[in-house]
């Protein structure tokens, strides 16, 4: 059975109204609903893992295991952390964060030519002795995998703003001016984003 068939064989999500009732009961202390909430998100967890590691098949099984682990953790935490019964976005965020951390700490690094084939260029530009990152999606519309890799490569709001401004075409000195930091600091913040991006998107 291939991976897609395996994923399809997993339980699917419950209708939204039914799920909300179960989540409310779970938040009210009826712990017996925990397994039902986990079960109905298994397919979602496997789908997220499969999507993120689509171009890195060798990570598929491990990433899926991480997805299931963080699904369980998220459901456990949600009982007290949620402010409402909308549990699915909370689960999605936890799973993506868990797989991101798994990929970034995985010691096996494979490289390939897929980045070049997709028409995506990730290069350093020398600008006033400060290297800055240039991410250029040459496709008319960046792929889902590209956008997912960008999301996973960015770890904080400063990094997000740098990437957003860079994709809008701003140079390193202009980004520094907008953010109120030096061009050298822009380069310093951009460097680890590049490393993470290649590890995820290679």
How does this model look, in words?
It is a single chain. This protein folds into two domains: about 5-105, Rna Polymerase Sigma Factor, Chain: A; about 115-200, no CATH class. Mean pLDDT is about 75; it is low at about 105-140. It contains eleven helices and two strands, in the order H-H-H-H-H-H-H-E-E-H-H-H-H. A hairpin with a 2-residue loop joins strand 1 and strand 2. About 30% of the residues are buried. The chain has helices at about 5-10, 15-25, 35-40, 40-50, 60-80, 85-105, 115, 145-155, 155-165, 170-180, 185-200; strands at about 120-125, 130-135. It has about 200 residues and is mainly α. The protein is globular and about 55 Å long. The longest helix is centred in the middle third of the chain and has 22 residues, at about 60-80. It has a two-stranded antiparallel ribbon with strand order 1-2.
């Amino acid at each position: 059975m291939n991976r897609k068939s395996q994923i399809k064989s997993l339980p699917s999500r419950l209708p939204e109204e039914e799920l909300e009732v179960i989540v409310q009961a779970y938040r009210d202390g009826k712990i017996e609903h925990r397994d039902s909430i986990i079960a109905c998100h298994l397919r979602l967890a496997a789908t997220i893992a499969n999507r993120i590691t689509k171009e890195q098949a060798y990570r598929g099984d491990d990433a899926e295991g991480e997805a299931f682990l963080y699904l369980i953790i998220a459901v456990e935490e949600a009982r007290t952390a949620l402010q409402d019964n909308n549990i699915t976005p909370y689960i999605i965020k936890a799973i993506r964060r868990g797989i991101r951390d798994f990929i970034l700490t995985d010691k096996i690094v494979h490289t390939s030519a897929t980045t070049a084939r997709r028409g995506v260029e990730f290069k350093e530009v020398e600008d006033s002795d400060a290297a800055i990152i240039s991410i250029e999606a040459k496709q008319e519309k960046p792929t889902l995998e590209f956008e997912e890799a960008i999301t996973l490569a960015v770890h904080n709001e400063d990094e997000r703003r740098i990437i957003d401004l860079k994709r809008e075409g701003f140079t390193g000195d202009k980004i520094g001016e907008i953010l109120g930091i030096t061009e050298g600091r822009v380069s310093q913040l951009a460097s680890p984003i590049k490393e993470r991006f290649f590890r995820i998107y290679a």
